[in-house]
Amino acid sequence: MSRRASRRRVRDKWRSKRWYRVISPEYFGGVDLGSVPADDPQKLLGRVIDATLYDITDDFAHQYLKMYFQIIDVDGRTAKTIFKGHEYARDYLRSLVRRRTTRIDGIFNVTTKDNYKLRVSACAFTLTRIKTSQERAIRAIMKEVIERKANELTFEQFVQEAVLGKIASDIYNEAKKIAPLRHVGIRKSKLLSRPPTEPVETPKEEAAKVEEGEQS
Predict the structure, then answer these.
(1) Residue 61: how many CB atoms within 10 A of its CB?
(2) Interhelix angle 166-175/132-152, nearest 10 degrees
(3) What pLDDT does residue 196 have?
(4) pLDDT band per the 50, 70, 90 thresholds, residue 204
(5) Residue 78 belongs to what domain range?
(6) In a domain? residue 213
(7) Residue-wise pLDDT tens digits, 149-160
(8) What 3-state DSSP class applies to 30?
(9) What is the largest CA-CA distance in the chain?
(10) Quick one: 94 and 172 in the same domain?
(11) How does pLDDT run across 33-46, given as a tens digit for each residue?
(12) Burial level of 144, CB count in 10 A (0-12/13-18/19+)?
């Protein structure tokens, strides 16, 4: 095949694609996350779109938090999503580390009131080095608060509190009685499964870059 014919095939393939607007779920504002191309809307299902909390809140201070949304439905030219997970940006997490202090991590698998299963990673950074017994006590508080919240809240409520800092604030208020703390946060979360009536689609791609702008 000649190079010219090959270029023509690529051009024709792109011409057959249409642009679909991706929006965040209503519990994260239903905001426009950008546009993605596809020649078949069914091929969008399961695709994971990355964004930041800044894209949701329009608050520059939230750029450090990466969010992931999975496309679960296409209505016309609009792709609807579900929250798939979040994590601190690596540079931000690295900036929290200080010499002569202690970092406490806890990873917990929880089930929300409406039977969504998540893996939640919490972190705490102290002002000074602390004893191992204090680390264990703070990790136990993380576990108690996160599991209690999961039992009390629906998936939508839980992920809002995890991302926006309410759960971290509750952990901080209890853990500061054990040792002085500089930062407490939910550094990462991941949706493991939805209720049996809502199977999670197998992602066709691990992540899709959001293309800004519409097809000209």
Answers:
(1) 9
(2) 140
(3) 85
(4) very low
(5) 3-86
(6) no
(7) 999 999 999 999
(8) coil
(9) 72
(10) yes
(11) 999 999 999 999 99
(12) middle
